[in-house]
Every structure is written in C-alpha cells, then in structure tokens.
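Late entry, written up from scratch paper. The run itself happened at the end of the previous shift, but nothing got recorded in the book at the time, so transcribing now.
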Amino acid sequence: MVHALHSCLILFCIWAGPGNFPQGENKPMRGLAANYAGDRAIETDAAVLFVDGFESGKLDHWDEDQSAGDESRVSVTDNKADVFFGQHACQMTATRGQNNGGGLIKWLPEGQDEIFARFYVKFADDAGYVHHFVHINGEAKRWGSFGQAGKQPKGDDFFTTGIEPWFDWGKNPPPGKWNFYTYWQEMRAAPDGNYWGNSFPAEGGDIPRGEWICMEVRVKLNTPGKHDGEQTLWRDGEQIAHVTGLNWRSTEKLKANVFWLMSYVTERAFGHTEQHAVKHTDTANLQSHTVWFDQVVVATKYIGPLEKADHK
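Output as recorded:
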C-alpha cells in the first residue's frame, strides 16, 4: 500500500529562511558523518537509530516494502552509474498505467522528540514531477499516520511532514523545487474545507536531474502547549529551510517514530509532467519515473554529508 496524501498544497508559512541554525557563522557544521569516513561504522554511534547503504544487496533492513516485492518498482541495483557510494543503491520506478512506484518504511519504536534523517538521492535524466516523496511521521499507534489525507491531526494522534519536490503548477522545471508538505494540529484548511498538507517552500533553486544530492531533514517536536517546534532542511550540507513556531503535538506521548523512503508518482503527476513538459523538458511522453537512493542514516543528532575523503 502506498498512501496518497494529496498534491494540493496550501501556502501557509512560518518560515525563518536559511538562518544560522545549525550552521553557525554561515558555515556548514560538522556532523556525525565526519567521524566515520565513508559512513563506515556510523551505526555504532549512540545517536544513530538506523542505517542502510543497501550493501547487503537486499531490502532486509526495512520493516515494510510497499511494492510487495515487485522489483520493477523497488529494488537494489549494483549498476555503478546509479550507485553513490559502495556497491549498491536503492532504485524506485513508477510505470505509467501500471503502478505508482513504491516506498520503504522503517518503524522507530522508541520514538524521538528530535530526529534527523539524511539520504542521498538522484533523479533520472528524464524524471518528471512526483506526487509525494520522503516523509517523517509521528503516530500514536502503528499505521495511524497513514490514510489520513485531507484530515487535520488532533495533536495526540499523528503528524507527518514530507520532503518533496514541488512543481508549482509548471513554474518549476521537473522534478521541481524542495518543499515541506506538512500535516499538524494547527494546519490551515483548504478552500474545499479539507486539510491537505500545508506547504513550506525551501530555497536553493531547482532540483537537478542526473546527479546525486545529499538531503537531510530535522524535525524537532514542541513542548506540549507551546509553539516551539521546528523543521529544518539541508541540501549538500547547506541549510535551505528552517520553519519555526510549530505546535506539532498536545502530548509528549506523540513522538517521531516513522521514516518513510518513498517515490510516489501517480497518473496525476505524470499528467502534470505531460502538461508542462513543453515549457521545460522533452518528457511529454514520459511513461516511467525513476529515482535512486543511497546512504540513508537516521539519528538524534545532525548527520551531515558523507565524509568526502572517502567519496568514490
């Protein structure tokens, strides 16, 4: 099951811009990865919750494979041209008229008040727009954050935020520009009365195709009763979004406990690419959408890009 959250974004921003947290003096700060060249043994760090560089050649580190084992949708590749580091990477493909791509879910049973997730991603040279992308969720019960499209969280049940390429109705070339797509208890309703994810655009320009990008997201939950929650986004170690004033939850029992690596491309997304391709690309007849992921790390501290001294 791949859950459609909906692609209608309501622009409601409490955005602090690319400020000083956590770079300090406008310089990228040193993260956990700087202590583990090539991410080797990074899983031994007390702050690390989950690691997968896909070097096992399998998807056995994940709790849920939403492609149901269909390797045409989600698989591990050893094609050197599509691997960022090491010998393997994850490939996700959506085929128009057949499927919507796939996703991998990792449950984090302990739950966290602050969480960081870093992943490397590469979009195919002909990649179009997506419907939804990588998410961090919090849920009071397992699967409680899924199937909630159009619903406003109550504060004690769930929240979710996606790190998503936003096409802005064709203004942004495929695959788009980075954007938070967020559900939380004080989100704004859409004109139709439903609660579709609110949008928090990032800076940093268009997302390139055909090259690896290091993305890292931070979610800091609020103190119940206070608007001191945050979410932050980095691209290649540079902060491109910092949203403050978020009231994620009404109880400390609600924690960040789901990491969802996903590339969800619906017919609607293919249609948007087709409609706007004449402006930006030669993908008017696009029939598939492929993206690769590598070097996934989830932790309770800032991770940062893979140590460059060991970059292949």
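The helical segments are 267-280.
(Scratch paper discarded after transcription.)
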